[in-house]
Amino acid sequence: MSFFSFGQTAEIDIVLNDAETRKKVEHKTEDGKRDKYFLFYDGETVSGKVNVTLKNPGKRLEHQGIKIEFIGQIELYFDRGNHHEFVSLVKDLARPGEMAQSQTFDFEFTHVEKPYESYTGQNVKLRYFLRATISRRLNDICKEMDIVVHTLSTYPELNSSIKMEVGIEDCLHIEFEYNKSKYHLKDVIVGKIYFLLVRIKIKHMEIDIIKRETTGTGPNVYHENDTIAKYEIMDGAPVRGESIPIRLFLAGYEMTPTMRDINKKFSVRYYLNLVLIDEEERRYFKQQEITLWRKGDIVRKSMSHQAAIASQRFEGSASSEKALSQAKEEDD
């Protein structure tokens, strides 16, 4: 708006070129609500149009230049004055001058690096957004448009199981085993608990998934623990030699991939927490970190095709061409 409520002013609208076809996903906002945003991945081009609409026809709009920025930034809630930008790209759309009529400007940020996943937590927010600005002497006119970035991963075949023991000398000895240590966000945690020695009366046992968000450095480190899920294993006393199977489906819970030391500002880690409660309400814990990762369609796509290409590098061309054509048929 104009500073003195008169003269010319304008409205800005940012429209993506592929807005009709690009997927939208829900993402938690700072106030806890869930809104839908356009989804992007690392390396994808961000392009579109900036529409500048003059509010008062017949009057000119003086400006000091028009630009659009693509920004990735981290905001720590206890340090709101400082925004830590890890991506900052600028495109000038118009030189200083006057606008006599509404205009549309094209923009394109090619193969933009988006190294981290969008995240809104207890003490920190990592966001990506486009910001269009009409620079003016007294007050700029700005419009921001947030997008969401997902990071996709592939993990090697080496994914060792987790084996742990919980023991109180001469009273309790429990072994538990999980099938692996790295899980994708729609995976299933499969495990088993073995009771080798039970001399205290256990009345309840559960597994919790705990998210631990760590922000800051040095003396200004903040930890926030959030219990994402509770899974009751048993309600009643186990006996020696008993084993209990575990199947915990992750798809129903709101989680992000594990994020370690993101831009030296924050981390998000996940833990499996085994909780035992005896008849005197004493609680026994055993905690183990797990790694969560996002498996997307882009990663899964054309695996057989990739395998055929790999075989082509090591085998003769005649046999590999046949494998490649078979892979293409499978993809089709």
TrEMBL record:
Chain positions covered by the region annotation Disordered: 310-332
Membership in a protein family: Belongs to the VPS26 family.
GO biological process terms held by the UniProt record: intracellular protein transport
Species of origin: Cyprinus carpio carpio
Keywords, sorted A to Z: Protein transport, Transport
Record carries keyword Oxidoreductase: no
Protein name per its UniProtKB record: Vacuolar protein sorting 26 homolog B, like
